[in-house]
Amino acid sequence: MRHRIALLVVLLLVLVLAAGCVGSMPPTHHVNSALDFLYPRGLTAAAPAKEVVLKLPLRVGLAFAPNRGYQRDPITEEQKQKLLGRVAAAFKENKAVSRLEVVPTTYLQPAGGFANLDQIRRSLGLDLMVLVSYDQAQFTESTRASWTYLTVIGPLLIEGEKNDTRTVMDAVVYDINSQALLFRAAGESTVGGHSSPLNMERKRRVFAAEGFEQATKDLIGNLNAALARFDEQARSGTVQGPGTPAIAMYSAKGERITAASGHLGGGALGIPELILVALIGISLLLRRRAAGA
Amino acid sequence: MKPFQRYFPWLTTALAAICAAASLVPAETLEYDRNRVAAGEVWRLVSGQLVHWTPRMAALDLGMLLGLGIWLEVRGDRRLVALTMALGGGLTVLGVQELSPDLAVYRGSSGLASALFVLAAVRLKSVNDPVTRNLAITGVVLFLTKASFEFLAGQTLFAGPLPPGVHVVPVVHLLGGLGGLVSATPSLSVRLPGLRSCSTSN
């Protein structure tokens, strides 16, 4: 009897220790910043931006800002290129943009600054550069279901780990020649989900990628709105209002574009009109069926 | 002659073919451009209503235009459709060229679609079913109220996404809707030969 009790105690101890092996992971935080890349010596050491001169249509490059040092990315280079491709596709309809080039991250050196951007401008023939930064934090904590890890199959089957992935993506658009920030926009997402201790790493990678996907979607909408605001503002002669660099935009024919140059308009019906037509159509259809019955 | 042959929607089919052909050339060659119209390219007043800024915008505008056009023609209202399109298109030109002096470039067929929407709804006013009739009248009232508010307030309600810098032009919807209303009035209808009265069997 004494031996049995001792065996039970040892077994419980082993299970508790084993459960400790599959405990929660510490939070992870991945950050990269366009400002770190552009101003490696700090913003105070930066030269003031010159007057901006833009000749439409523009050639625009898109890239993720390079990481600080050798920090590991939460997503692969291929995934980054795909996300940038989606951002580029959202701007293909814009008349002010003639070409959008997704620039591989390898073209940008950490702390490369405007000298690096100037090299890219010369080699790829770009006017503007869109630099995308991100800040992603992942938190994992055990839920009440984690007591099942004390059993042998618990860690295999029970998803007792709760994951939260919060992602913020920020895009800054710079005129390379004048080194002026034209406009910026951000997109964010929160992705939640559960995982078992044994597939935690894989699930965190999946959640990280999903977080970037959703934040990119948000970013595209906000970037479009920011571009529209910039277009309005730039016509009045300054990049972002009084105190910011002066800007002059010219059409392909060389004519200066100003507030008096006119707006672009569209005759676009929306969802309310579609709903009205659908309701009337459904009503007619029901009436016809009732008459036929 | 079989009913289908008699009421085949030739007009709407022709319009669909023209829109399809327009989509094959760059939109810049057909869009309304105030400077180019002033330079003599007057066809842009009409061709600008056949091209769109985005595929979504084209799907909504043309989907409604073609759907309503086919329905009206199949039920025998071809002449009214022709009149409404002419009126809607003409009023869109008025709205873009004369009433929106700060508008430099315009694309879209919502003026025509608005006109057909109001025409279709007004043509339903004499159906037996009170639900459909009330829904149609409410639809016209809501549509014209929304367009009037957008025109007067200078801001759009529930507008879908458009490319940066492109704004919806509410005056086009308002004028198009009024065009549909005018072409559907009985006083105008009786002067048109071959017009069928609204069938209650539909």
In brief, what are we looking at here?
Chain A is α/β, with parallel strands linked by helices and 293 residues long.
- CATH homologous group name of chain B: Rhomboid-like
* CATH top level label of chain B: Mainly Alpha
Rg of chain B is 17 Å
| CA-CA gap between termini of chain A | 83 Å
Put simply, the count of helices of chain A is 7
Strand content of chain B: under 5%
Helix content of chain A: 25-40%
Number of domains of chain B: 1
Radius of gyration of chain A: 27 Å
**Architecture per CATH nomenclature, i.e. the level-2 architecture of chain B:** Up-down Bundle
Low-pLDDT segments of chain A: none
Which shape of chain A, going by the Cα principal axes? flat
Number of domains of chain A: 1
SSE order of chain B in H/E notation? HHEHHHHEHHEHH
How would you describe the shape of chain B?
Answer: globular
Greatest interface (CB-CB under 8 A), with counts per chain: A-B, 34 and 59 residues
Query: What is the SS-derived class of chain A?
Result: alpha/beta
Mean of all residue-level pLDDT scores of chain B: 81
Given helix and strand content, the structural type of chain B is mainly alpha
The helix content of chain B is 55-70%
Task: Report the strand count of chain A.
Answer: 10
Give me some keywords for this one.
heterodimer; A: 293 residues; alpha/beta; three-stranded mixed sheet; 7 helices; B: 202 residues; mainly alpha; Rhomboid-like fold; two-stranded antiparallel ribbon; 10 helices; 3 strands; 61% helix; globular; disordered C terminus
